[in-house]
Design brief:
By secondary structure, the protein is α+β, with helices and mostly antiparallel strands. It is 43% helix and 15% strand. The chain has helices at 2-24, 35-41, 49-65, 92-108, 112-121, 125-131, 167-178, 224-230, 238-254, 281-297, 301-310, 315-321, 353-365, and strands spanning 71-75, 81-86, 140-145, 148-156, 260-265, 270-275, 330-335, 338-346, 372-374, 380-382.
């Protein structure tokens, strides 16, 4: 009897397994991490770098055609950053709110507009939503392919004009172009309740239209209206940041390796980020820590990191009290003697994070860039 029951269970398992497998393979491989990279992270349903980049750049193309700029970020289902661009002229609030919208979509598994609509229906709900870590503003969307969520995207930074234009409309149209009609439709907009006892005070204006001067070539830094918006003529441009990333990515791929990369501006805000397929969370996180440390120290992380290896007595003080991350791979972006940002790279096999970053800097700035070199004794120097 037991033998017959066991056989029946095995037969049922055999009948169910193909259907279960079919359900788990509803996403075309072109959109998700696959092969050995997926095996490494044990996940065959997370968005790949190529898809994340296409969504971001498609949305950037749309907003550029309207004379605007966006910040856009793509996260995977675990909340790891996959790809991020901050278009020239975007400020702090534009950068952080794009990610807040994406994380709201990730936590709720629905558009951030759904949270916004709940607050619109009942303004008293806002405190509750914020307490849960949600940002009740439209612009964050799940990235859904054939009813499977593979990541989330958030955008911010351009004045909305619904139903004609908004951050949400931009990313939704981008996903339709990249993924196709399986992308869910947008939710309807719910009008907010009027605010009682609202004042009508004059709002001050601040700033001038004159772009700040820079001594650097225009292709390296934010210029024109964007520079005027942030009062900074020596901040790395998105185009230059993406060129660094592409060169480092291509170099890593030529070595059969992968990498995670962050580029931050001279104020420490993210400009560009990319995570090649197969990178794990620690690689992604340490790349940012390296960039931040290089910016604070205004020197490559390998300099102090090597010094501490030679004399480890001060290691706890440097890492704990100053919150430095001193593994090699973080380099300030110094062009013709002017620091315009920093780059951090992690995850390249064989300890070649710094070499990858250097390749990116050389490909972008050539002889204009200052990069670490090594003396005969092996200690890195800047030159």
């Amino acid at each position: 009897m037991r033998h017959r029951i066991a056989c029946l269970v095995l037969a049922m398992a055999g009948a169910i397994a193909p259907g279960s497998m079919a359900l788990g393979q509803t996403v075309p491989a072109q959109f998700v991490v696959s092969g050995k990279a997926a095996e490494k992270i044990q996940d065959f349903s997370t968005i790949n770098l190529a898809t994340a980049q296409r969504i971001a750049e498609t949305c950037e193309r749309y907003v550029t055609s309207r004379g605007g700029q966006h910040t856009i970020i793509v996260l995977d289902n675990d909340g790891n950053r996959v790809y991020m661009d901050r278009m020239d002229g975007q400020g702090y609030a534009n950068i952080v709110t794009a990610e807040m919208k994406a994380r709201t979509a990730l936590k709720t598994r629905e558009p951030s507009k759904a949270t916004m609509n709940r607050v619109a229906r009942n303004p008293e709900q806002e405190a509750y939503e914020i307490q849960l870590g949600l940002y009740p503003v439209a612009g964050g969307l799940p990235i859904v392919v054939n009813k499977q969520m593979i990541g989330v995207v958030g955008a911010g930074g351009y004045r909305p004009n619904p139903p004609v234009w908004s951050d949400e409309i931009c990313v939704h149209n981008a996903m339709l172009e990249v993924i196709g009609p399986s992308v869910p439709p947008l939710l309807e907009d719910i009008q907010s309740q009027p605010i009682a006892n609202r004042e009508n005070l004059p709002v001050p204006r601040f700033g001038i239209a004159t772009a700040p001067k820079s001594t650097l070539p225009a292709e390296f830094v934010v210029t024109g209206k964007g520079a005027a918006n942030i009062f900074d003529g020596n901040q790395i441009s998105l185009a230059a940041a993406k060129k660094i990333g592409r060169a480092c990515r291509d170099w890593a791929a030529s070595k059969g390796a992968t990498m995670s990369l962050y580029i931050i501006d001279d104020a420490g805000e993210m400009v560009h980020m990319e995570r090649m397929d197969g990178q794990v969370s620690s690689d992604i996180s340490t790349a940012l820590l390296k960039a931040q440390t290089a910016l604070r120290l205004r020197e490559p992380t390998s300099i102090r990191g090597t010094q501490l290896k030679n004399d480890p007595r001060s290691l706890p003080r440097n890492t704990s009290m100053f919150d430095f991350f001193l593994a090699s791979g973080g380099i300030p972006i110094v062009v013709d003697g002017q620091m315009i940002g920093a780059v951090g790279v992690s995850g390249v096999e064989g300890g070649q994070d710094e070499a990858c970053a250097i390749e990116g800097l050389k490909a972008t700035f050539g002889e204009h860039a200052t990069v670490p070199v090594y003396s005969a004794a092996g200690a890195p120097e800047q030159r």
